[in-house]
Backbone:
């Protein structure tokens, strides 16, 4: 897989600070504008002849959201508002033994290394796939993506970083097969998966007015996790476009001596 480092970008390209953790209330206005008009509630009020104006009020969570942000803080990017009908997949990171099994390296000393193992760290949704280089490269433009570990480390190095943590932070069940997440729609599976494996916070990069559903808030409270919205408008267009493109490489191409030259031509 070819992707980018969201942990660095979320600090470099936005004004986000970990202490900026808020929840949003909707209240009837009696002359004040608060943090803006909630048009959905206001229009509903007009429809029932109430004639009231409803506003948004952001409230700091204070001690309820005392979080520490690091590379193990899950990050969810929601690029599309409607994910219904999209496909989904999960990406795992292997230890050295599992990696050599996947590469079909028959000469690897399996008996002198630990048993094969892997952990899941990325979940994404997409609508279609583009096959390139006679099928050796697959490109997917994604509609959402969730990172449980957010540094750019890949493969064995990524596996080693994740497995240094306590066991319950290591995911070995794909979210689509996790009974605890079965009631969440596809638009919320990535977020609920992030909540399950988060230490105390999840960052959700989405449209500026995005707020979590009641179902997500309840699940987050049960795990003692804070959901922190981050406006996607704070990121550069170029970064978002690059992040939305995932490339998957076949095993024969991974082992090809001219792999770098071939991939440079495809990815330029």
Residues:
């Amino acid at each position: 897989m070819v992707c980018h480092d969201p942990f660095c970008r979320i600090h470099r390209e936005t004004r986000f600070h970990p202490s900026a953790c808020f929840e949003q209330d909707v209240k009837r206005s009696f002359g004040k504008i608060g943090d803006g008009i909630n048009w959905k509630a206001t229009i509903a009020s007009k429809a029932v002849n109430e004639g009231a104006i409803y506003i948004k009020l952001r409230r700091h969570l204070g001690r309820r959201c005392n979080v520490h942000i690091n590379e193990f803080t899950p990050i969810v990017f929601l690029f599309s508002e409607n994910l219904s009908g999209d496909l989904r997949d999960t990406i795992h990171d292997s230890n050295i033994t599992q990696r050599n099994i996947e590469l079909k390296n028959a000469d690897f000393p399996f008996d002198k290394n630990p048993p094969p193992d892997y952990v899941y760290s990325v979940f994404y949704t997409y609508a279609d796939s583009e096959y390139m280089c006679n099928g050796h490269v697959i490109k997917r433009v994604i509609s959402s993506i969730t990172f449980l570990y957010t540094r750019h480390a890949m493969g064995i190095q990524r596996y080693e970083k994740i497995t240094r943590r306590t066991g319950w932070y290591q995911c070995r069940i794909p979210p689509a097969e996790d009974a605890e997440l079965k009631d969440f729609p596809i638009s919320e599976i990535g977020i609920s998966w992030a909540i399950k494996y988060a230490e105390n916070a999840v960052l959700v990069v989405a449209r500026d007015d995005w707020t979590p559903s009641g179902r997500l808030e309840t699940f987050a409270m049960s795990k003692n996790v804070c959901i922190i919205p981050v406006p996607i408008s704070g990121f550069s267009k170029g970064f978002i476009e690059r992040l939305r493109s995932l490339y998957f490489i076949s095993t024969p191409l991974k082992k090809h001596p001219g792999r770098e030259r071939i991939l440079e031509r495809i990815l330029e």
